[in-house]
Amino acid sequence: LQFQDNTVPLIRYLVIFLIGTVIFVFSIFLVFAWINKPLKRWIFYWAHHGEERSVVNGEEKLLMNSVDALGHLSDLLYNLDDSATTGSGSGFPLLAQRTIARQIELQKEIGQGRFGEVWLGYWKGDEVAVKIFSSRDERSWNREVEIFQTNLLRHPNLLRFIASDNKDTGTSTQLWLITEYHEYGSLYDYLSANVVSEPVMLQMIRSIAVGLSFLHNEIPGPRKPAIAHRDLKSKNVLVKSDLTCVIADLGLAVRYMNGEINVPDNSKCGTVRYLAPEILDDSFHINHFEAYKTADMYAIGLIIWEIMWRCGNQEKVRPFELPYFDCVGRDPTMEEMKLCVCVQKRRPIIQEHWLGDKVMGGVLQMMQECWTESPVCRLTAMNVRKAVDRHAASIGWKGICLHRIVHTIRNVETIINNKKTVTKRLNV
Questions:
Q1: Sorting pLDDT into bands at 50, 70 and 90, what band is 45?
Q2: CA-wise closest residue to 398 among 125, 45, 62
Q3: Which of 137, 167, 248, 350 could make an S-S bridge to 115, C-beta 3.0–4.6 Å?
Q4: Which residue ranges does the record assign to the GS domain (predicted)?
């Protein structure tokens, strides 16, 4: 009896000690979480999206699942004709590619790229874009053609490659890269001249995320490698006639397959303004493919900011600006960007009305989770696509999902018609 009487207070003290220890450790964790921004952002992210998931009802989930299913069908059909060619991702026999320059009539110059000019041309009655490299940039031309001809690299949100060729002008040799033509030009051009509505903003962001997600992911079986872009910016995103977007300019892209990274010989970094903090401060892991993907996502955050900046009513929206316009000039150096982004820890300006707006507020959080300093805390392209779908559903915009379904069905019809048209032309 005496032994039992002595153990009762001992157990009570032990329980009190354990409870106190747990409370103390939890308090330390909360303080650390509040000080540590990536951890705080991670907690907020899951809390926020957990709440969003509870808002989405069964009907909205069905809509989003339908979009996913049709998207997979569209991707499959986009790549269906690859098996009928010599292996190029374009779907064109190599013989046709080598003679196509003779059949194209150049009309006017429509842009300047890093390695050459971009022209509007006509091929058998249809408009095409012709990117012309000089012979001294043959390595860059070869790399971009090589990436475009990657097996299964066909997607509605990637610029459609048609062919490559060279042309003797008499004084020099031009290297041609022929792609589909988009009248609205780049996202940079479009936002410079136009204001976008909130639904269009979400559609643009979603389409870019879908295209990048397709690039970033490896496909087993037929063996499409994972690809990181390395030079994402609004000038390298084109706007389609339905105001969705396609990703272009793969000349600096990195491929990853079977655990091996294939980096281009002209291993220039991307555009300085859009470089991730870890690239600017030399902490980038060049041998880790995930590092290239997270650097792409930082650039996506800046592109989202550009779209948000031009979203709203014509009277209230400010003129188009590039990210960090308030702290660097039009052509910043690496040192200037490092000071702004890494030392001063700055990010593009957040407009006050975004904070209290239901639509813009959700996109703002998504954007900030893309450009966060810690690469491992950034959203993936697939995360962004899903976040847009959840956000659209949570504010009752089922029309976004329905638009994607209708658009994907039209994509499927276009693919089938294009296949018939191309086959007919090649036989002419």
A1: very low
A2: 62
A3: 137
A4: 71-103
- Dihedral over Cα of 313, 317, 321, 327: its sign: negative
- Per-residue confidence band for 417, with pLDDT thresholds at 50, 70 and 90: low
User: 381-394 and 198-216 helices cross at what angle (nearest 10)?
Assistant: 150
Query: Could you name the CATH architecture of 55-80+185-412?
Result: Orthogonal Bundle (1.10)
Q: What residue segments make up the domains of the chain, in order of their start?
A: 55-80+185-412, 89-181
pLDDT in tens, 263-295: 876 556 789 999 999 999 999 999 999 999 999
With CA atoms as reference, report the closest residue to 248 among 184, 173, 323, 328. Answer: 184
| Residues 185/235, Cβ–Cβ less than 8 Å | no
pLDDT in tens, 80-126: 444 444 444 455 555 455 678 889 999 999 988 777 899 999 998 89
Looking at domain 89-181, its CATH superfamily turns out to be Phosphorylase Kinase; domain 1 (3.30.200.20)
- Contacts of 302-305 spanning 24+ positions with Cβ under 8 A: 302/233, 302/273, 302/274, 302/348, 302/371, 303/187, 303/208, 303/232, 303/233, 303/234, 303/237, 304/205, 304/363, 304/366, 304/367, 304/370, 305/348, 305/367
What is the residue whose two structure tokens read 């300019």? Answer: 249
Measure the CA–CA gap between 276 and 231, rounded to whole angstroms.
11
User: Which 3 state secondary structure label does DSSP give 246?
Assistant: strand
Please check the confidence at residue 54 and state whether its pLDDT lies above 50.
Answer: no
Q: Which one from 137, 231, 296, 389 is the annotated catalytic residue?
A: 231
Residue 268 or 177, more confident: 177
131: annotated binding-site residue?
yes
